[in-house]
Design a protein that fits this description.
This protein has 455 residues and is an alpha/beta fold. It has three domains: 107 residues, 3-Layer(aba) Sandwich (Rossmann fold); 137 residues, Rossmann fold; 160 residues, Reverse transcriptase/Diguanylate cyclase domain (Alpha-Beta Plaits). It has 16 helices and 19 strands. α2 runs parallel beside α3, α5 runs parallel beside α9 and α5 packs antiparallel against α12. It is globular and about 80 Å long. It starts with a strand and ends with a strand.
Length: 455
């Protein structure tokens, strides 16, 4: 896991200490010594997380956090307040300003890395969903509702805890605003989680005779609860175990003794995230499919490609990561239509799209570009690897004939052109054009081959 983190503190020694710790975990670290510089860097450099000192001259951390959350370009960047203040009111004030977490100096390395990894994982998910939403907007679908978040929630919470004292405290803190179901038996709790549909699950790490961490792992493994936020209740001496919990997908944690105001703030933060994520997923899976899907093959169409590739190129250029484009064209496809009929041609296109889709990674984008031409976008892939993938696909197509619903067995070959992103000045249009030129070169050289762009 890698990300760009902004460290903000008016004491240079504190900045350097956090910078060393984070770089040891291979994070890209930016630094600022005051609030105005922090706001400028956050807006300019697309940071993934902000570690923000509270006590700074001029503009303090509370004001910086508020301004970050007010700006559209930084509103969804997680903010962790880092301060010497340990009062309850200060922690709650930070969370009410929009901060996602609060660390007290001197910062424990385990607490620091745990919080950072947890919030970076959430940021990555939000970025992916936001990218999909931006694509939807560009094709004329209104996404305004996605980004409007009500402050009032009536969500349903599952509490998995067998300590009467903490059960009573959690219920007292939350029952006026949320519906609470409590279970001490993990097996029964898992059944409820899978069937009821909760907005948040709160789990005690120390369940009598049971492993709270195993319960969290099971919740994050199944489809029905994979995106349900999980808040862990932990004792003070269990911080090493929290690293494993975060790796398993736990979204947040709170340390005993539970402070009611802090618990309420953390719960509301998780609820806001879930509302936002649910709206995005719902919009992506429903309305967008009508506008950006090819009806014959079920793949994304050219309309979606143009916008999505532009966003991917911008992000890859910014991060200095490669992108490869593979352009496929079925050889002599007109002859298939002329010989076997257009229904058979449609069967071949559907079968080819299915083979293509199942032969690439989940992060790769497969598009029907038009007619018998298909495009595969491979993020974080250079041309050398893309050529190997393309040639494997070409060989698989050649060796297995395509069966039609009419019973015909049709041999098919495919030509492939490959191109790679060329630095920060390259564009999505130029990248597609070079892949297309390489494809035409493959056809000129005899078809049924892979040709890479020479740029």
């Amino acid at each position: 896991m890698t990300a760009r983190i902004l460290v903000v503190d008016d004491v240079l020694a504190n900045v350097r200490l956090l910078e060393v710790r984070l770089k040891a975990e291979y994070f890209d670290v930016k630094t600022a010594l005051n609030g105005p510089d922090a706001l400028e860097i956050a807006a300019r450099d697309r940071v993934d997380l902000v570690l923000l000192d509270v006590m700074m001259p001029g503009m303090d951390g509370f004001e910086v956090c508020t301004k970050l959350k007010e700006q559209p370009e930084t509103a969804h960047v997680p903010v962790v307040m880092v301060t010497a203040l340990d009062g309850v009111d200060d922690r709650v004030r930070g969370l009410q300003c929009g901060a996602d977490d609060f660390l007290t100096k001197p910062v424990s390395e385990i607490a620091l890395i745990t919080r950072v990894k947890s919030l970076i994982r959430l940021k990555m998910m939000t970025d992916e969903l936001s990218l999909r939403a931006a694509t939807m907007q560009s094709v004329g679908i209104d996404t305004t509702e996605i980004f409007s978040t009500s402050r009032q929630f009536d969500g349903r919470v599952l509490l998995v805890d067998d300590r009467p004292s903490s059960v009573e405290k959690v219920k007292l803190a939350l029952e006026n605003d949320f519906s609470i179901d409590q279970q001490s038996d993990p097996a029964m709790a898992f059944h409820l989680a899978e069937t009821v549909g909760y907005d948040l699950i709160i789990v005690s790490l120390n369940l009598s005779g049971s492993d709270g961490l195993r319960f969290c792992s099971q919740v994050k493994m199944i489809e029905n609860t994979r995106y349900t936020p999980v808040l862990l209740i932990s004792d003070p001496d269990e911080k090493p175990t929290l690293l494993r919990a975060i790796d398993l997908g736990v979204n947040d944690y709170i340390i005993r003794p539970i402070e009611v105001n802090e618990l309420c703030a953390r719960v509301r933060t998780q609820m806001r995230r879930k509302v936002y994520a649910d709206r995005l997923r719902g919009m992506v899976t429903d309305a967008v499919e009508l506008a950006i899907t090819d009806p014959l093959t079920g793949l994304h169409n050219r309309r979606y490609l143009d916008s999505h590739l532009r966003s991917l190129v911008d992000r890859s250029a910014q991060a200095g990561k490669p992108i490869a484009v593979l352009a496929f064209d079925l050889d002599f496809f007109k002859g298939i239509n002329d010989t076997y009929g257009h229904d058979a041609g449609d069967d071949v296109l559907r079968d080819f799209s299915h083979r293509l889709k199942k032969s690439v990674r989940g992060i790769d984008l497969v598009v029907r570009h038009g007619g018998e031409e298909f495009i595969v976008i491979m993020p974080e892939t250079d041309s050398a690897l893309a050529i190997k993938v393309a040639d494997r696909l070409r060989h698989d197509v050649e060796k297995e004939a395509f069966e039609t619903r009419a019973g015909d067995s049709i041999p098919v070959t495919v030509s492939v052109g490959v191109a790679e992103l060329q630095g920060k000045t390259d564009t999505s249009d130029a990248l597609l054009r070079r892949a297309d030129q390489a494809l035409y070169a493959a056809k000129r050289e005899g078809r049924n081959r892979v040709v890479a762009d020479a740029a």
